[in-house]
Amino acid sequence: MQHENDLEYVLNKAAMPDNTVIITTLNAAWAENNTMIDIFLESLQHGQETQTLLKHVVIACVDEKAYARCLIIHPHCIRVKTKGVDFSGEQALLSQDYIKMIWRRIQFLTRVLELNYNFIFTDADILWFRDPFPILRHDSRADMQIACDHFNGRPWDVKNSPNAGFAFVRANKKTLKFYRYWYEERRISAKMADQEVFNVIKHEDTFRNIGMNLRFLDTHHIGGFCSIKYTDMTKAYTLHANCCKGLNAKLHDLREILDLWKRWQKHHTDEEGIDPHFTETRSCQKSMHRN
After folding, report:
1. For residue 263, which of 178, 209, 212, 219 sits 20 to 30 Å off, Cα-Cα?
2. Among 217, 247, 271, which residue's Cα sits nearest to residue 88?
3. What pTM does this model have?
4. Are 258 and 42 in contact (CB under 8 A)?
5. pLDDT means over runs of 10, the chain (291 residues)
């Protein structure tokens, strides 16, 4: 089909009436059967009022194997090409290829803003339990809202520790200018990925002069393994496998939590109920102590 890999065509097909899409990225390692992309999509199928969001998800595939699998399991796929780079293997955090892949993602998201689409960007190692749009759209002041590894209780405070794996971005002049600036500032260090650079530039005069209203999201609702003790199944909208190294550790703990969520959904209204707290992420905790 001549339009199958045309970005504007795919975005238009997937967009909500207000020109908003949900974007995740995928490589071959995370596209294998019964691995990350399957858990991600399964969480959307079993969340509260999340099933209808599936038709708005665009999967940006960074290699041919991921693209081929995407075409089998999902209606909205796009092939994002990078000359001379193979992103198909598992990418170790902050390895050279990982950093290249992350900056290609920022470049791709900049193009989405240029085409005037709002987006949620979500890593595929995030479980979706509830539709987050009601809390994201509640504050119309925010141009960009970003998840945190650790949240200090002050949503407008740049001293928060952001996690670039989940962000809601409105397409406007400020966010487009910021994403272009963010991409350009990758030159700060060849060893820094998007999140590390973000943590530097959020304090710079150039960032302040752009005037983008940046809101940091409460880990009670947009949570992750780093702050899992501060949320539970009654509060969480999403849960990210951050503070975790390696595909196998992530898969083990995400699968355990997703299965627990499905059981809680069925039985939380019973008289005895099920403890709403998440299980300990033991595999991920162990992974953080390995070299």
Report:
1. 219
2. 247
3. 0.93
4. yes
5. 69 98 96 96 97 98 95 96 60 65 92 97 98 94 96 96 96 98 87 87 96 97 96 96 95 97 84 82 93 59
